[in-house]
Amino acid sequence: MTKAPMSNNKKLMIYLVCGCIGMFGFGFALVPLYNVMCKQLGINGHSSNLPEKYKRELVVDKSRNIRVEFVTQIHPGLPYDFGAITKEVTVHPGELAHAQFYAKNNSNHLIVSQAIPSISPGQGTLYFHKTECFCFTQQPLKPQTKADLPVVFFIDPALPKEIHTITLSYTLYDVTKAVLAVHPEVAKQIES
Amino acid sequence: MTTLNPEMSATINSTSHEHHHMPPRGMMRWLKTTNHKDIGTLYLWFSFIMFLIGGCMAMLIRVELFEPGKVILDPNLFNQMTTVHGLIMVFGAVMPAFTGLANWLIPLMIGAPDMALPRMNNWSFWILPFAFSILLSTLFMPGGGPNFGWTFYAPLSTHYSSDSTALFVFSIHIMGISSIMGAMNVIVTIFNLRAPGMKWMNLPLFVWTWLITAFLLIAVMPVLAGVVTMVLTDKFFGTSFFDAAGGGDPVMFQHIFWFFGHPEVYIMILPAFGIISSIIPAFSRKKLFGYSSMVYATVSIAVLSFIVWGHHMFTTGMPLFSELFFMYCTMIIAVPTGVKVFNWVATMWRGSLSFEPPMLFAIAFVILFTIGGFSGLMLAITPADFQYHNTYFVVAHFHYVLVTGAVFAIMAAAYYWLPKWTGHMYSFKLANWHFWCSVISVNVLFFPMHFLGLAGMPRRIPDYALQFANLNKIVSLGGFAFGLSQLLFFALVIKCIRGGESAPAKPWDGAEGLEWTLPSPPPYHSFTTPPEVE
Ligand SMILES: [Cu+2]
């Protein structure tokens, strides 16, 4: 019990401390891991914010009718009206379709907003493609003005058979502060 | 020799009598102590004080819920009470109590002179009071303390919380560091300081369960530290881990939190399994039935705990295959847990039972913990969980496993080893009063919550619909009775420390283990010469 256990203690402690640091890192590694998994499996309904090209060679599957519903939400605190003009459309997989939304800034200053799309059921995410969407960019909106916001999309004919209805939901967030942090020149626009 | 350096003093044993002196007196003894028994005592008292503080918050919650409508608490204060009650009970009462028991008992049980890393031991205790002072002080700050539930889901803790969240995060960090240091000490002690001849499969089960708990702590406390750090940077430094507007995902918070959270619930119950596995054989006067199956069951519960976190998130819109995966994995845990319950019952079967206070609490544990386990199984069924989710049924479930599970086991442990710790027998009469008051009131308190939950009463809401009024009144009355009963325990412990009939080295005739070979109370340095184990 003189020297030997002390050095054993030290050795074991080194392993344990490394284990702790490793697990702390693992906690953070879960973030990219989660995002990659969700993206690959298309399971958290995280729809893309990037445009996708319509593939002309797609065969429109006339035998299937998919109901697409549109839902909107405003992040609390954002003085906007935001809604879907097109409440729902029925499409065949493979064909291009349009939907119309609107947003109105009810405040007396310029606000930059960002819409985040989300698909339900999550399993449909991988098959729902937007070629045009107001969610691809941040939308500045002048005080008391209204904007029409279009979406063009198509559904991949490979959509699993058990899915008959897809809901596309947009949540509108206020990103003015974040934009100002990167582009301070926008502040002038807001004041004017 | 000074007591500052017991790892040295322990090495110079039979030749020197000097270090058998009594510890220095006064505050400094406790502040500077590196003695495992002193630190164990500090942990246990700290935990008891936290139990009373968290208990007072529970009483306030039950007063508010005594009648529909506002009684005494504003909704925001009510939310702070439920949040801080949970945090205090989990991190302040149950976990430090188990660490205290580990400190007191593991060296005695494995024939060691002290814990392996005594100075770290001192630190791991003394940072705890700071952590909880910080946490409690936030309640008195403008904007109030944490009000987002002990699970601090984003965006509640990021978007909608008060500025004191920074202090909440800081205090969680300190608690985490404290439990990690405690866990490391336990592992190093068990690996390196076992008495010669003590093989792995001879370890007392309390030592085994604590060893596995310590590994769980090291695996998941850093993940908790990570997730609170993300909350901190999301709230104050503009990151968007959990903010959808910035590309994050609030559901990811739940994944990371429950990756910590589910092993955490086993951290709070595995040492309890060890305690019960020591007490039931002692008062059945039989060897524990199925020792090795107990060890394997504990290991498999610990391993499975890492792949079941999703059962807390069935209603988040997970894909069907993950719901099924988490449902089946969760239900598989019932198998090793069932093995344990079976073994305890089989130990009692045809034993010559006697019903001293520790045994009463142990039997109550087996029955009531099993009820908590059953409601857990109900919650594990995905479609059923859609109904039970976020209702009082969940509250009933985790209070059965934590109060009549973990807390009852801690009380059983206190009654079992109190004569060893203090050198005095305690009053059985008072202990029996404490037991019967507790066991009746705790069921009046928690059992009706099942029905409230099934009828649809949501948790964490300061008000409720009129049809829930009668049951809530009963629950509150049970709560007050249970709270008051714990004062009996406090009185009993004080009385026992002050004096009483002196306890023999082994006050329970059926007890087994090295701790009973030492006099009661044991000498300041436990085993200065390692005992021989056949
Ligand atoms: Cu769980």
Automatic annotation (TrEMBL), chain A:
<keyword id="KW-0812">Transmembrane</keyword>
<comment type="function">
    <text>Exerts its effect at some terminal stage of cytochrome c oxidase synthesis, probably by being involved in the insertion of the copper B into subunit I.</text>
</comment>
<protein>
    <recommendedName>
        <fullName>Cytochrome c oxidase assembly protein CtaG</fullName>
    </recommendedName>
</protein>
<dbReference type="GO" id="GO:0005507">
    <property type="term" value="F:copper ion binding"/>
</dbReference>
<keyword id="KW-1133">Transmembrane helix</keyword>
<keyword id="KW-0472">Membrane</keyword>
<comment type="similarity">
    <text>Belongs to the COX11/CtaG family.</text>
</comment>
<dbReference type="InterPro" id="IPR023471">
    <property type="entry name" value="CtaG/Cox11_dom_sf"/>
</dbReference>
<dbReference type="Pfam" id="PF04442">
    <property type="entry name" value="CtaG_Cox11"/>
</dbReference>
<dbReference type="GO" id="GO:0005886">
    <property type="term" value="C:plasma membrane"/>
</dbReference>
<keyword id="KW-0735">Signal-anchor</keyword>
<keyword id="KW-0186">Copper</keyword>
<dbReference type="InterPro" id="IPR007533">
    <property type="entry name" value="Cyt_c_oxidase_assmbl_CtaG"/>
</dbReference>
<feature type="transmembrane region" description="Helical">
    <location>
        <begin position="12"/>
        <end position="34"/>
    </location>
</feature>
UniProtKB/TrEMBL annotation, chain B:
<dbReference type="GO" id="GO:0006119">
    <property type="term" value="P:oxidative phosphorylation"/>
</dbReference>
<comment type="function">
    <text>Cytochrome c oxidase is the component of the respiratory chain that catalyzes the reduction of oxygen to water. Subunits 1-3 form the functional core of the enzyme complex. CO I is the catalytic subunit of the enzyme. Electrons originating in cytochrome c are transferred via the copper A center of subunit 2 and heme A of subunit 1 to the bimetallic center formed by heme A3 and copper B.</text>
</comment>
<dbReference type="GO" id="GO:0046872">
    <property type="term" value="F:metal ion binding"/>
</dbReference>
<dbReference type="GO" id="GO:0016491">
    <property type="term" value="F:oxidoreductase activity"/>
</dbReference>
<keyword id="KW-1003">Cell membrane</keyword>
<dbReference type="InterPro" id="IPR023615">
    <property type="entry name" value="Cyt_c_Oxase_su1_BS"/>
</dbReference>
<feature type="transmembrane region" description="Helical">
    <location>
        <begin position="393"/>
        <end position="418"/>
    </location>
</feature>
<feature type="transmembrane region" description="Helical">
    <location>
        <begin position="325"/>
        <end position="346"/>
    </location>
</feature>
<feature type="transmembrane region" description="Helical">
    <location>
        <begin position="265"/>
        <end position="283"/>
    </location>
</feature>
<dbReference type="GO" id="GO:0015990">
    <property type="term" value="P:electron transport coupled proton transport"/>
</dbReference>
<feature type="transmembrane region" description="Helical">
    <location>
        <begin position="358"/>
        <end position="381"/>
    </location>
</feature>
<dbReference type="GO" id="GO:0020037">
    <property type="term" value="F:heme binding"/>
</dbReference>
<comment type="pathway">
    <text>Energy metabolism; oxidative phosphorylation.</text>
</comment>
<dbReference type="Pfam" id="PF00115">
    <property type="entry name" value="COX1"/>
</dbReference>
<dbReference type="GO" id="GO:0005886">
    <property type="term" value="C:plasma membrane"/>
</dbReference>
<keyword id="KW-0479">Metal-binding</keyword>
<dbReference type="InterPro" id="IPR033944">
    <property type="entry name" value="Cyt_c_oxase_su1_dom"/>
</dbReference>
<feature type="transmembrane region" description="Helical">
    <location>
        <begin position="474"/>
        <end position="494"/>
    </location>
</feature>
<feature type="transmembrane region" description="Helical">
    <location>
        <begin position="83"/>
        <end position="111"/>
    </location>
</feature>
<dbReference type="InterPro" id="IPR023616">
    <property type="entry name" value="Cyt_c_oxase-like_su1_dom"/>
</dbReference>
<dbReference type="GO" id="GO:0022904">
    <property type="term" value="P:respiratory electron transport chain"/>
</dbReference>
<keyword id="KW-0186">Copper</keyword>
